[in-house]
Amino acid sequence: MAALVEFRSASYRIGGREVLRGIDLLIEDNETVVLLGRSGSGKTTLLKMVNRLLDPSAGEVLFAGKPVANEDPIRLRRRIGYVIQEGGLFPHKTVAQNVAVVPTLESWPEDRIQSRVKELLEAVGLPAEVYAERYPRQLSGGEKQRVGIARALAADPPLLLLDEPFAALDPVTRFEMQRHFARLRQAFGKTSLFVTHDIREALMLGTRIALLKEGRLEVVACPEEFTRAGFPEARAFLATLSDASPGPSHGVQ
């Protein structure tokens, strides 16, 4: 069976600068691949190639075995969940309306939409009877991210793209959201591509970690293998674990 996402010698150039250089990477069904790297390493650029927010300068990206360059960007994006910092919620829509965006655009029957919204709000720990009619301004940062994840799951897409979704949260809320995401990933069986610059988060959530340095892939490994990697950039990230205060370990389910 083909990989759900495949990067084939994907490169990206802007203003004469090589942001990404010949990336080859497969993302299989039901795994979470974490794109780890310093600021400017190209990880968000790589993520955005999947849903055609950016198109590669060379090479190609495939989704479900088909080149995304041949896909209508709007239709493509409706088939892929996308979560960013603060959830990217529409401020003028209620929580229920935010979660229902894609099912509504896809013309689902109203009773099916309402049922799906209630199911997902329960799943992310925000009971519909309490939160459905609230607006984003009435939510905490963690609650916004929960709504953002529920919205990404609403149309039951096979793939989730997450661009540093928990980076703006305080440490305790961030840890709670990481644990919650790990449980949701298992419960809904979703394939995920997750961007972070936090090694702890990468080790905690990734089934594999893809480390980028200056636009190139340096290491692709499961968390256990990554901790033994001898590449200088991997060692630089791992060194921050001993320098930081104790925190959550990887492997949370």
In short:
This protein is α/β, with parallel strands linked by helices. The protein has one domain: Rossmann fold (3-Layer(aba) Sandwich), CATH 3.40.50.
Describe the structure.
The structure is a single chain. The chain is of the alpha/beta class. The protein has a single domain, classed as Rossmann fold (3-Layer(aba) Sandwich), CATH 3.40.50.300. Helix content is 38%, strand content 25%. It contains eleven helices and ten strands. It has helices at residues 43-50, 73-78, 95-99, 101-105, 110-123, 128-131, 141-153, 171-188, 199-205, 223-226, 232-243; strands spanning 5-14, 17-27, 32-37, 58-63, 66-67, 80-83, 159-163, 191-196, 208-213, 216-221. The strands form two sheets. Strands 6-7-8-3-9-10 form a six-stranded mixed β-sheet, sandwiched between helices. It has a four-stranded antiparallel β-sheet with strand order 2-1-4-5, covered by helices on one side. A hairpin with a 2-residue loop joins strand 4 (58-63) and strand 5 (66-67). Helix 5 crosses helix 7 (141-153) and helix 7 packs parallel to helix 8 (171-188). It is globular, with a radius of gyration of 18 Å. The two termini are 26 Å apart.
Name the descriptors.
Rossmann fold; six-stranded mixed sheet; globular; 253 residues; disordered C terminus; alpha/beta
Globally, the shape reads: globular
Instruction: Note the total helix count.
Output: 11
CATH class: Alpha Beta
- Can you tell me the residue ranges where pLDDT is under 50 for at least 5 consecutive residues? 245-253
SSE sequence, one letter per element: EEEHEEHEHHHHHEHEHEEHH
* Strand residue content: 15-25%
